[in-house]
UniProtKB/TrEMBL annotation:
This is Cell division ATP-binding protein FtsE. PROSITE patterns: ABC_TRANSPORTER_1 (PS00211), ABC_TRANSPORTER_2 (PS50893). The keyword Hydrolase does not apply. Part of the ABC transporter FtsEX involved in cellular division. Important for assembly or stability of the septal ring. CDD domains: ABC_MJ0796_LolCDE_FtsE (cd03255). It comes from the Bacteria. Belongs to the ABC transporter superfamily. It comes from Flavobacterium macacae. GO terms for cellular component: plasma membrane. Keywords: ATP-binding, Nucleotide-binding, Transport. InterPro entries: AAA+_ATPase, ABC_transporter-like_ATP-bd, ABC_transporter-like_CS, ABC_transpr_LolD-like, MacB-like_ATP-bd, P-loop_NTPase. GO terms for molecular function: ATP binding; ATP hydrolysis activity; transmembrane transporter activity. Residues 6-227 form the ABC transporter domain.
Length: 227
């Protein structure tokens, strides 16, 4: 059996020394699509932040894309994040640069130098999300759904092993949310592992998948129909 792309064992997660989630045990294999659900304040975001090392793992064992989270040094966090694609609720596009320049900024920040290689990669990821013809528009010229597609493309730039999507449809209307989900499901069908925190239960019903719930300081798997 291959090594799971992510596991947490007996992990306790804290926010400002306050316990948020206790005794977390999760194992996720390559190519899975996982939902993380729970009420506001239940620990979804804290769990996601632990996975991309925005919160340190101080109690328990954890590994993601072969990085030991408990032993991770601050200087190695950028290298970890190159192997993880992160998609946020609020897009986080740089407003003073067009889409192509947003992408170039990320590639340069992660060590790319060859202009032709960068341009080819940008065209490749924009093609995957159906946004190839929007490369020279400014973020404010795009709808929310279009901006989120760009954010997903940006997350794909360094060919990550896993994508962490934290409420990626939270600011979108229902129809646009479905369009963004179709993009994520297509990426998953091509072999990417996706972990998606969401409170949109309509999407869970339309696109059922393994679901973990944060509730009362615990994380546990739920059967879809009882969500």
């Amino acid at each position: 059996m291959s090594q799971p792309v992510l596991f947490l064992r007996n992990v306790n997660i804290y926010q400002d020394k306050n316990p948020v989630l206790m005794n977390v045990n999760i194992e996720i294999n390559h190519g899975e699509f996982i939902y993380i659900i729970g009420k506001t304040g239940s620990g979804k975001s804290s769990l996601m932040k632990t996975l991309y090392a925005d919160l340190p793992l101080t109690e328990g064992q954890g590994s993601i894309v072969d990085y030991d989270l408990a032993a991770l040094k601050e200087k190695n966090i950028p290298y970890l994040r190159r192997k993880i694609g992160i998609v946020f609720q609020d897009f986080k596009l740089l407003p003073d640069r067009n889409i192509n320049e947003n992408m170039v900024f990320v590639l340069r920040a992660t060590g790319w130098t060859d202009k032709n290689e960068m341009q080819a990669k940008i065209e490749e990821v924009l093609e995957k999300v159906g946004m190839k013809h929007f490369a020279y528009k400014m973020p404010h010229q795009l709808s929310g759904g279009e901006q989120q597609r760009i954010a997903i493309a940006r997350a794909l730039l360094n060919d990550p092993e896993i994508i962490l999507a934290d409420e990626p449809t939270g600011n979108l209307d229902p129809q646009t949310s479905v369009e963004v989900m179709e993009v994520l499901r297509k990426i998953n069908a091509n072999g990417k592992t996706i972990i998606m925190a969401t409170h949109d239960y309509a999407l869970l019903m339309k696109y059922p998948a393994k679901t973990l719930k944060c509730d009362s300081g615990s994380v546990f798997e739920v059967v879809q129909r009882t969500v």
